[in-house]
């Protein structure tokens, strides 16, 4: 969607008359009902006059077109500035220009990552060349006007109009960023003449209106190159092979898609229910591959950002094709999506769906399930009610059925039982359920899954992290202070009696589970849900204890520190506390992350002995 599409002459006039902010605000409200922050308005005020000067001095034909705030298809991201027109040879061009108000930066670890001052502090963010190039590649892989119509040639760059580069060693020009800079140049302050020349070479003759129209009206769907890339990473990869009932569920979901008439048929909702380790994600990724192969407009949704980023990194690492990342979205991405915009939306970890996403405009009577079903012709949800771990989690089987009925969708339900995690030990998962929910001690552990109760958190660290290259995780029984102390993460997960202290996982390191720094941090439930690792060490805090008198597990409300996830205390003597179920669900989820083994340390000695018994 293009928010602002005007001739170069009109754009320059709007800036010179100091009306550009008002014009943009009006168009944003008209087209996407999007609230605009003060920082966003400041960026218009500071950056657009700089671009108006560049465009004016480039001496372009008046019917060259300027596009502002172009919303990328099926994304919340918007391109700052895009100019369309023809070159001297009569070839159609579109140039993406990302605008930055930065003044300095630092190199940072990670591919295409830099540090700069954003949001009142220095943060890690993507290099401007990576950002502009990623937007270019995104359009080339999802907009048919750009991947099928080769007459429109797309290029990109960024303009840091306040930034004076360090002549001796400019961080943004460091060798580690060279591959991105070669494809998408960065222009600094005083580079305006060079930028003018680059723009003029591509669009000086004008005739940009039709080019802009073709880009905006281009059918949205995956390019052949993107489809082939996904197929190559799935083909022959044992991690994606479907076994037994996984194959059955996959074929049933696929047949529902194949029998549907995507042009005229009513909506269809597929619920695939299964506990930890039943292979829900494997089925989902195979379905995405099949739908892409059929040229369907499909996206893969994961509410948990950490799970989403790990999936992206593993897949991109295998394919070497970074545009695969754009197929994966958060569950809050569909607030403004038109009805039936997507052929298929696949939602993994649907139990983590929310009423509304963080910082989103709330729509009365809607939740994320409403929006996903509305935006798609076929919605596939993978769900496990026993992995709801916060009062904000609303994605239950019951709710999804209600939402499907409200929108007149045909409902299909499939069930998964066999376990493919925890060494394939269904016995271990049954034992965990018995211990945490039934408390009848009828099920005894059998088989060769490596499960132990240890006597200290230091022993847990030694056995899991040092000897088995695993990760430590814990329930939310400690406060989480996210501000650095003397440049380091505070060691909030502290057990004084055991002389043990480690920090929570770095909130800025969403790939904690696979990053080397993660070994010295404790993962929280919001970071690890959906992930799996070889070995996991679980610290059960004093939010879950064992009462020897009643011989029952007890959830201690005051020891549960995640205030945002904690439901209100029930009123009435015999009312059930919803927190009880959420804490038990949390520890079940944590204890079922390990494929080879799980070791547990309990702060409460009574619980330790109960589990050991």
Automatic annotation (TrEMBL):
It holds the Pfam family SLFN-g3_helicase. It comes from the Bacteria. Residues 266-393 form the AAA+ ATPase domain. This is AAA+ ATPase domain-containing protein.
